[in-house]
Amino acid sequence: QVQLVESGGGLVQAGGSLRLSCAASKGTFSLYAGGWFRQAPGKEREFVAAITWDGGTTSYADSVKGRFTISRDNTKNTVYLQMNSLKPEDTAVYYCAADWGRGDYAPRARTEYDYWGQGTQVTISS
Fold first, then answer.
1. How far is Cα 82 from Cα 57, in angstroms, rounded to an integer?
2. Which residues contact 83 (CB under 8 A, 6 or more apart)?
3. Helix (H) or strand (E) holding 49
4. What residues are paired with 24 via a beta bridge?
5. Residue 83 is inside which H or E element, if any?
6. Do 52 and 104 touch, CB atoms closer than 8 A?
7. Which 3-state string (H, E, C) describes 12-37?
8. pLDDT in tens, the chain (126 residues)
9. Residue 104: how many CB atoms within 10 A of its CB?
10. Which long-range contacts (CB under 8 A, 24 or more apart) does 10-13 make?
11. Which residue of 6, 46, 90, 94 has the smallest Cβ count within 10 Å?
12. Four-point Cα dihedral 103, 77, 23, 123, nearest 10
């Protein structure tokens, strides 16, 4: 079992950057693939990015490819999401998730994840 805590959200202007962190306060994150999802008001929660347990494989939604980078530091039990060139349409609550397993696949579906954080708000002003 793992407990996830997100941080790093906030309000920035369009074109700016933010780095989100997802720390496992309980459990060993290196046993899990990590993922980021987001949910805007009135919309479904959508996939943003994912990374395998060792960081060897990553996957991105088309809408963020080239702007966002997912990474991890297993010595710190943390997964990161570096977000650059932010747009107003990136405004959402961002959720971190963990999927049990040390495979070479970075899952994109919500249903594949076993544990979720509480979310952190990201707001981009135009």
1. 16
2. 17, 18, 19, 20, 64, 67, 68, 90, 122
3. strand 46-51
4. 4
5. strand 78-83
6. yes
7. EECCCCEEEEEEEEECCHHHEEEEEE
8. 899 999 999 999 999 999 999 999 888 999 999 999 999 999 999 999 999 999 999 999 999 999 999 999 999 999 999 999 999 999 999 999 999 988 889 999 999 999 999 999 999 999
9. 11
10. 10/121, 10/122, 10/123, 11/123, 11/124, 11/125, 12/86, 12/123, 12/124, 12/125, 13/124, 13/125, 13/126
11. 46
12. -70
CA neighbor of 119 nearest in space, from 5, 14, 10, 25: 5
Q: Tell me the residue type at 75.
A: T
